[in-house]
């Protein structure tokens, strides 16, 4: 049996390594360390999925990343570790639809930064019941024929449940064929069925749906950009043992 000291040391090293994995060069504040610890406590001990904390000026959210979409998962983790998303805005927000981020900040003179030209091959996994449910974390993309994803831009689905008549009308308008699982999903949890098979879903929100709704309901301009900037900072919370 491990001594109390050994157990304490193991827990301390886990917390430090998780913090360091998400910030190799920036020292974390005591408030950040406390926040990370609080969210780490929500992750089951033997969980096999990566989890990321998305701290925003409207509150905090935690997402889990699917192992069924390893290319998107690993790309997102790498961006989080590099601190790529830190200080970026949710630049496109549409209430009852989704919130989108990952666009580079403008230069000091206000000029737009160039977007990354790096694309990621699509990973559609509807066979694993990975759909655009409410809270789905998915990759934005250009209108390219391969439906390849942006390496940086992401969105989180916010739409609340349809009634069955609403869903049937939506499916007819969009010429969608929905299976029984999708019908149950979109009438009980919510989401955006017309995006299934068109954009890659690679994770989902586990905590912070109230924050998602708060961001989605913010005041926006004619370009769907919040009139008051909503910024983010991300932290990798864990490292599943079998994926090390």
TrEMBL record:
<protein>
    <recommendedName>
        <fullName>peptidylprolyl isomerase</fullName>
        <ecNumber>5.2.1.8</ecNumber>
    </recommendedName>
</protein>
<keyword id="KW-0697">Rotamase</keyword>
<feature type="signal peptide">
    <location>
        <begin position="1"/>
        <end position="21"/>
    </location>
</feature>
<dbReference type="GO" id="GO:0006457">
    <property type="term" value="P:protein folding"/>
</dbReference>
<dbReference type="InterPro" id="IPR029000">
    <property type="entry name" value="Cyclophilin-like_dom_sf"/>
</dbReference>
<keyword id="KW-0413">Isomerase</keyword>
<dbReference type="GO" id="GO:0003755">
    <property type="term" value="F:peptidyl-prolyl cis-trans isomerase activity"/>
</dbReference>
<keyword id="KW-0732">Signal</keyword>
<dbReference type="Pfam" id="PF00160">
    <property type="entry name" value="Pro_isomerase"/>
</dbReference>
<comment type="similarity">
    <text>Belongs to the cyclophilin-type PPIase family.</text>
</comment>
<dbReference type="InterPro" id="IPR002130">
    <property type="entry name" value="Cyclophilin-type_PPIase_dom"/>
</dbReference>
<feature type="domain" description="PPIase cyclophilin-type">
    <location>
        <begin position="59"/>
        <end position="232"/>
    </location>
</feature>
<dbReference type="InterPro" id="IPR044666">
    <property type="entry name" value="Cyclophilin_A-like"/>
</dbReference>
<dbReference type="InterPro" id="IPR020892">
    <property type="entry name" value="Cyclophilin-type_PPIase_CS"/>
</dbReference>
């Amino acid at each position: 049996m491990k001594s109390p000291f050994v157990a304490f040391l193991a827990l301390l090293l886990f917390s430090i390594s998780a913090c360091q994995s998400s910030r190799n060069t920036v020292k974390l504040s005591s408030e950040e360390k406390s926040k990370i610890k609080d969210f780490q406590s929500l992750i089951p001990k033997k969980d096999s999925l990566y989890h990321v904390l998305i701290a925003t000026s409207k509150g905090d959210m935690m997402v889990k990343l699917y192992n069924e979409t390893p290319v998107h998962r690993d790309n997102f983790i790498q961006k989080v570790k590099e601190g790529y998303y830190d200080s970026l805005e949710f630049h496109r927000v549409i209430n009852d639809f989704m919130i989108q981020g990952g666009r580079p900040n403008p230069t000091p003179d206000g000029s737009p930064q160039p977007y990354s030209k790096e694309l990621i091959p699509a990973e559609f996994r509807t066979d694993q019941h990975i759909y655009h449910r409410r809270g789905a974390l998915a990759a934005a993309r250009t209108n390219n024929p391969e439906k390849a994803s942006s390496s940086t831009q992401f969105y989180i689905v916010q739409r609340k449940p349809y009634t069955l008549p609403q869903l049937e009308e939506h499916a007819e308008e969009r010429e969608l064929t929905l299976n029984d699982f999708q019908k149950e999903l979109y009438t009980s949890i919510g989401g955006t069925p017309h995006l299934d098979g068109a954009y890659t879903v690679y994770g989902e929100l586990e905590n912070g749906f109230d924050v998602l709704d708060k961001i989605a309901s913010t005041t926006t301009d004619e370009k769907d950009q919040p009139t008051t900037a909503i910024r983010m900072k991300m932290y990798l919370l864990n490292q599943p043992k079998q994926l090390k």
